[in-house]
Structure formats: structure tokens, C-alpha cells
Predict the structure.
Amino acid sequence: MAYDDLREFIRALEKRKELKRVSFEVDPKLEITEFADRSVKNGGPALLFENPKGSRTFSGSGKIPVLINSFASMRRMEIALKVDSIDEIAGRISEYLEMRMPEGLLNKLKMLPKLAEIGAFFPKIVSKGACQEVVKTEGFSLYDYPILTCWPDDGGPFITLPMVFSRNPDSGKRNCGMYRLQVFDERTTGMHWQTHKQGAEHYRRRLAEGKSTRMDVAVAIGSDPATMYSAILPLPPDLDEMMIAGFLRGSPVEMVKCHTIDLEVPANAEIVLEGYVELGELRTEGPFGDHTGYYSLADEYPVFHVTCITQKKDPIYATTIVGPPPMEDFYMGKAIERIFLPLMRMQIPEVRDMCMPAEGIFHNMMLVSIRKSYPGHARKIMSAIWGLGQAMFTKCIVVVDEDVDVQNISEVAWRALNNIDPERDIQFTMGPIDSLDHASRLINYGSKMGIDATRKWPGEGFTRPWPEVLRMSPDVKQRVDALWKKAGL
């Protein structure tokens, strides 16, 4: 069964000794970042700061705890998604992708449970939720919350783990994305809608139609882990993240209508900010210490006006930090890599495996192993990946043969550096680039590199014999296994 809410997830982490409570006062300005960074770099636990400096509940009865690093290991990702291995989710996806309606009435009847299960993933609207135990339309301030200032040169405090809800003005379909929010004052924040994101597309469409001056936006903070995680998934446009959250949870996400705007949010959320973006209003946002390990530069972004806050009576503030890898976001991204491999293989079936190394910070490098079938096959793979959703941002793709373990970065480097003739095997192309890429010649546009590190065939102009990789014979390995133990090694 799915977690009821964030608190049940916290209890699960604590039960498995994956969480540490910090009872003494720690400052959300820089100090919590330093705690979190040290913990993830040293394989430490998730952290629950019970006494963050400066925060207070609406009642003034106590502090609002801060949860951080709750996804910051593969073990915690497995606990979050209630699996023994993330590959279990990939297996479930493969099962549904391969499902076909069989012939014959009896066989069709046998499929009904599966079809009903698919229907059970869709979100469920409920009349009330714990996220509205307290409703404030006046007398509230964002400064009452322990919002982190993460790095010394940040433009201010940032909400870093939000679920930002908007609606497509054409189709009416909901989108949920994770876009950082810089707190400008008690009731306004920046809205970091990068140009390629769906929130930004909704904003552009609203602006172009000219029918209104405002766009409703809701921001939910803290929920059950699968629902929070769904906000970062690279889904096709207009595929509801809350439906995918239902798939990950194994039960529908309960959604409740906002108090003042026409949007729905997870009923189990800890805190909800309701408000609007004024169309055409921009304000300088940033700098921000980003997941690249560098500060992303200040730029002009829309402004989010908070008109109402609803929350649980004693909420928990869920957050994260990003910076030099590996950080919490690496493990969240690694889970995406495993979960979405079946979808990539559906589009590009010759792909065997892929890996996005921590140092590549998602969009800078992808390692791909393929079953090579013809000359130039690796280059076809590069082009296919650059045409595949958000994989279009991948700055460097390295393609190797299927016998290479792409999860072993050292093996890939050894194979690639041995297998390439740089002039022959490296190709460059131009196209969209991630907005956070500070090295591209223009913002959002620049060059990408593909490296064909596969064995070269005669049809690719290589006429000499290709050497074999050194491998010890299996019988010798088996004999030495026993001798190795005998030697006490």
C-alpha cells in the first residue's frame, strides 16, 4: 500500500535507520545546506531538523521541522517507492507497454483485472484534505517558514522541492512540475519556468491568447514520496504527473480543490501556496547555487503572488539542496534512468542499457550500450536520443557495444578511449541546450557531441582485425577461486 503522507514516509525511514533527527537549533540560512551536503557526500542519513532557526507555526506554538535528503541514496529511493529494487518499476512499465488485447472472449475477460488496475491509477477528487486544516488569506508571511538560503551568493531563500500546478489553457489538462521559487518578500516569489518546461508553455499560451491578465498557480510542499517524486519526471506534455504518481504508488492520488483558485492539489500535502502569476510581469531571479555545481546567473522570470496559504496544523517543510555532485538529486535522477529505460527501449529497441553519471549532472552526459547491427548504427542512436523528449538536452552521448557495462564508468572510459579515432568517431551537432548550461554559446542553444566508441566494422572503413578484450578463461577462474580462499586472500 502507498504511504498516506510525508509523515508515514518519515516513520519508514526512521524504522530502517535511514533518518536522523536534529533537535538543537540550526539556521536555514546556509547551515542546513552544510549539514545536508556533508551527509550525502559521506553516505549519511536523511535529516529532520526539529528546531530550525526563525520559523514558527501560525499558532506560534512551535517550530516547523525541515526534512532534507529523504531521497539521497538508492536505498531511500527504494523505500520511497516501496520496492526492493527500482528495476521492479521498470518491469511493471514493460509489462504494461507489452500488454495487447488478446483474441477471444475468455482471454479478453482474463485481461479485465489489468485494465481495471490501469484505471485505478487516475487521481481521485475528494471534498476535503488535511492540507486545508488551516486556511490563511490574511496575516501570513512566507518568512514564517524555514525556507533555505542554500549557498552564500544565492539571491535569497529558495523553495527547492515544490510541486507547482498549472493548467493548459487549450486542453484544460493539469501539469505538475518542480520549479524553484525565490522568495522576494512575504507574499511574492520568482517562478523559475525555464523556456522548455510545460509551466512556461502554459504561461506563453495564456499570454498569447490575451483573454486574462492572470494565471492561477498552486504550489504544494510535502506529500507522500511518490507524489513528490512525480513532479520531476520527464513526461510527455499533457500526461498528468498525478496519474503517474498513482502508478508509482499503486493507488490513486487524492486531490482536493484549492480554497481560492481553480486548481487541485494533493490532499495530503503539508503546505499549499495558492495564488497567481501576473501575465507579462517579470523580475530578476537568482543567482542560485544549482545542480551543475555552479551558480546559475540572475535572469528575468515571472512573479508568483501568494494570496492564500493552506496547511496542516503542524506542517513539516520538505526541501532539498543541489550543488557539486553527488547530491540528493543524483539519486532521484538515477531512479528516473532505471524507470524510463523501458520507454527508451520501446522507441529505440537496440538500446541495452544507459547510464547518466553523477558528474554529468543529467544533461551533460549519457552512456549508452547497444546491440550494433549495421555500419553507422551508433550515430543513428545519437540522433534518436537527441529527438527523444528532454533527452534532447544531452550534451555528450557515448555509445558502446552491448558487452560493455555502462554502469561501470571506469570500464566505459577504458573502452571508449581505446576504441575511438577522434576525428573519425566524434560528431557534433547544434540544437536546444539546457537553460542551466553556462558554457553554451547562447542561452538555450548550442552544440552537442556524440562519440561512437563501438567496435568499427569494414563497412565503416576499418579493414584491419579488431583485437579481442583480455579475458581469463572460465576454467582457470574457477580453479583459482578455491586456491584464492586457501591462500586467505
The radius of gyration is 24 Å.
